[in-house]
């Protein structure tokens, strides 16, 4: 098919097969997300229908495409092209390497991004805190649906560890036992009286904040961001570190998204108290996060697929696409492995070339999980059991890649722990021994109990 025919095929699929109600703005320059309201899952559905109805197999680069913005970009995927190299660590086309001053800043978890935003302003290394992201909690519903957010998932683990690592107390201002109106009043007071170093974080439903781009187009879409006052009492300055966006939005519109019954939560913390973490705490945090012998996300998708194929609880294969719809929101967390490798790599001064190789493996894992998502959608839409084996092949591929990543990450963690924990103990011992003001133990009288 030539580009004109592909253009017509895309238009037909959107208007007829997918019943897109935003076709008035369809053109080569139409933006996929902002004009046609296509999120990453709906784009996969377009590719799936191009394959099933027109015999156009999805190009491999479509899975990895980061700059797919317009209908023209979509059509261009099916034409040969030359792609400029990019670099996993620094982004763009200029590679400063793992030992350079600049490095790519990952945005893969809204709560983590809000907390780490303050650390960067004080020049504190935030990368160790991403150890908890690659296997961060998610849920499986009673009907075997994948959920990146549920009432049973709290931020307590991250909150407690952030305080231990960086010495920043995090206070939960949102009280679930109070009404939405009362909590909103508390938020307004906190924002109005906020000092410069204090961050006020709130959870809102991004689906009800159309002023903000929502690439995942989830409904609901619980999301943490931070608020500040402006010179206009009717607006708030919205700072969203995870989506790399900030700007002014009417206060009543933000409040409307906060008041939704689908969300509830908020924290306040003072970044001025932040300190660099010590090696013992970093080691303990890594060991608390590192699930060496299994990959929870891959295991969960396997469980969900099997439940639908076996039609447990009355499920049907046709339900599978909906069951894994939130998978893209969780897949991006795997990029947190880059921060883990980068932190240990710089500390151990390991060769930069091998680091880039592992960044490529991490990227391969992300693409394998996206391919798995596409395979699940294809199985769901066709309901053809011959596609089950392909889904399981994709599951095995993702599982093997993540195991490779964890095996190597575990090795360099042990190298780092051996050198840095020992060094830390030696420094502490030397400091104690050389201090003329430190009394020896035998001079401290025992206290009666």
Give the SSE map.
Blueprint: H1 3-17, H2 40-54, H3 60-64, H4 71-76, H5 110-121, E1 139-140, E2 146-147, H6 156-166, E3 170-172, H7 180-192, E4 198-205, E5 222-229, E6 235-240, E7 245-250, H8 251-258, E8 266-270, H9 279-289, H10 296-309, H11 320-323, H12 327-331, H13 336-348, H14 352-382, H15 388-434
Antiparallel strand pairs: 1-2, 3-8, 4-5, 4-8, 5-6, 6-7
Describe the protein in words:
This protein is α+β, with helices and mostly antiparallel strands. The chain has 3 domains: 3-76, ACP-like (Non-ribosomal Peptide Synthetase Peptidyl Carrier Protein, Chain A), CATH 1.10.1200; 169-273, Cathepsin B, Chain A (Alpha-Beta Complex), CATH 3.90.70.10; 279-425. The chain is built from 15 helices and 8 strands. It has helices spanning 3-17, 40-54, 60-64, 71-76, 110-121, 156-166, 180-192, 251-258, 279-289, 296-309, 320-323, 327-331, 336-348, 352-382, 388-434; strands at residues 139-140, 146-147, 170-172, 198-205, 222-229, 235-240, 245-250, 266-270. The strands form 2 sheets. A 6-stranded antiparallel sheet has the order 3-8-4-5-6-7, sandwiched between helices. A two-stranded antiparallel sheet has the order 1-2. A hairpin with a 4-residue loop joins β6 (235-240) and β7 (245-250). α14 (352-382) runs antiparallel to α15. The radius of gyration is 25 Å and the shape is globular. 34% of the residues are buried.
């Amino acid at each position: 098919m030539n580009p004109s025919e592909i253009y017509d095929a895309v238009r037909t699929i959107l208007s007829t097969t997918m019943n897109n109600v935003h076709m008035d703005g369809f053109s080569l320059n139409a933006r996929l997300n902002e004009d046609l309201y296509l999120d990453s899952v709906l784009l996969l559905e377009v590719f799936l229908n191009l394959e099933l109805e027109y015999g156009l197999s999805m190009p491999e680069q479509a899975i990895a495409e980061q700059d797919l913005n317009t209908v023209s970009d979509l059509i261009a995927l099916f034409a040969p092209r030359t792609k400029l190299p990019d670099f996993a660590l620094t982004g763009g086309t200029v590679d400063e390497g793992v030992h350079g001053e600049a490095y790519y800043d990952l945005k893969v978890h809204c709560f983590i991004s809000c907390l780490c935003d303050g650390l960067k302003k004080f020049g504190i290394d935030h990368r160790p805190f991403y150890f908890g992201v690659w296997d961060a909690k998610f849920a499986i519903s009673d009907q075997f649906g994948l959920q990146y957010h549920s009432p049973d998932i709290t931020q307590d683990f991250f909150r407690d560890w952030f305080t231990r690592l960086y010495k920043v107390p995090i206070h939960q201002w949102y009280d679930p036992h109070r009404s939405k109106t009362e909590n909103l009043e508390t938020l307004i007071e906190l924002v109005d009286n906020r000092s410069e170093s204090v961050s006020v974080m709130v959870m809102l439903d991004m689906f009800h904040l159309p002023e903000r781009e929502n690439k995942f187009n989830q409904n609901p879409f619980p999301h943490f961001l931070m608020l500040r006052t402006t010179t206009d009492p009717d607006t708030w300055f919205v700072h969203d570190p995870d989506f790399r966006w900030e700007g002014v939005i009417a206060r009543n519109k933000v409040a409307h998204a906060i008041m939704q019954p689908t969300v509830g939560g908020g924290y306040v913390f003072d970044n001025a108290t932040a300190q660099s973490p010590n090696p013992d705490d970093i080691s303990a945090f890594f060991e608390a996060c590192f699930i060496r012998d299994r990959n929870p996300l891959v295991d969960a998708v396997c469980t969900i697929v099997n439940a639908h194929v076996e039609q447990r609880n009355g499920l049907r294969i046709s339900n599978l696409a909906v069951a894994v719809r939130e998978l893209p929101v969780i897949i991006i967390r795997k990029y947190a492995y880059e921060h883990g490798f980068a932190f240990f790599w710089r500390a151990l001064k390991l060769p930069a070339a091998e680091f880039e190789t592992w960044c490529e493996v991490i990227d391969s894992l992300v693409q394998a999980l996206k391919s798995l998502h596409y395979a699940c959608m294809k199985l769901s839409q066709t309901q053809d059991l011959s596609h089950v084996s392909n889904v399981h092949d994709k599951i095995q591929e993702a599982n093997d890649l993540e195991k490779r990543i964890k095996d190597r990450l575990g090795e360099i963690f042990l190298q780092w722990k051996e050198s840095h924990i020992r060094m830390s103990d030696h420094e502490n011992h030397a400091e104690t021994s050389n201090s003329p003001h430190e009394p020896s133990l035998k001079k401290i009288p025992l206290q009666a109990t």
